[in-house]
Amino acid sequence: MINIKEIKKQLEQANSLCELEALRINLLGRQGVLNSYLKDLKNLPLDERKKRGEELNLIKEELECIISKKIEAINRSLLLERLKKDSIDPYLPPFPINIGRMHILNRVINKIIHVLERLGYEAVEGPEVETEYYNFEALNMPLHHPARDMWDTFYLNNGKLLRTHTSPIQIRAMEANKLPIKIIASGRCFRRDNPDASHSPIFHQIEALYIDKGVSFAHLKGTLEYFARSMFGREQKVKFILSYFPFVEPGAEVAVKCVICKGRGCITCKQTGWLEILGAGMVHPEVLERQNIDYKIYSGFAFGMGAERIAMLMYGINHIRHFLDNDLRFLNQFKYNLED
User: Fold this and answer.
1) Which residue ranges are tagged as binding site for Mg(2+)?
2) Out of 3.50.50.60, 1.10.260.40, 3.30.930.10, 3.40.640.10, which CATH number does the structure's domain 104-331 have?
3) 191 is catalytic
4) Is 82 a catalytic site residue?
5) Domain limits of the chain?
6) pLDDT tens across 65-116, in order?
7) pTM, rounded to two decimals
8) In the annotation, is 274 catalytic?
9) pLDDT tens-digit map of 113-123
10) Catalytic residue list contains 172
11) Among 255, 275, 305, 321, which is least packed, fewest CB within 10 Å?
């Protein structure tokens, strides 16, 4: 039978982890002493086999406990020796700490919202999974309307869809019927766009809606001029180009002087000197009427933009994928600025 006293003595005399590991393998390894006794149990009578097996299991547990404590004691001793040899100078400067910073896209979104909040707009949010009613029908796009093809939509198995724009948030605000309405709707949107330098299946959109008595296109023009100059500089020029959106009438695309060539013409602006930044228009009477808002008394405007596009123009970023890659070489270019 195993001489437990002799084994304990050997373990106590072990002075290094290597020596201790060799003893552990000799005692508890697959070819070790204890396993050889366990293999011999099959040759014993049943009653004696059970008794001997319990004894060997108790010995195994005891040896594992002794070895574990011995390893801890050796590690502690090694640490104390190392601390005695190493000197610590409390006056040395600490190692540099890498401090995180807000993602450039979030900073641009916050700046856009902050600019509009100065005009009295309130930021609101809504669900990313929407119904066809909020995403299309309430926005003057009934079933089979050809304008739906302008939004390549992700449909879900439950009959719902991933919102293609943040306009459904505007509809929910109109449903509350608490006039006047002056909100900013922002969040992620989803479209089945083929990825390229300026398109991604996931992007961020920011829209604004203002409904009150006597709101005119002149109010929209003044708002967007203030917005463009706040984002791109005080001397920035704004141009309105007639366009079609089913939920506004009239509708327009809004462009600013090219921030790359300052209006002289370049590859970025396709030699036009102008860059389109957002879509806008007066809220369509059909949209107001669906939400029980009397369009003969109330009028309003709405405009919306892709946050990634604004950020790309502000910082000269040439590909939308940089916002999603989490590449520190890209992110570290944008140092924190109090003005942001």
Assistant:
1) 249
2) 3.30.930.10
3) yes
4) no
5) 4-85, 104-331
6) 888 888 888 888 888 887 777 666 777 788 877 777 789 999 999 999 999 9
7) 0.69
8) no
9) 999 999 999 99
10) no
11) 321
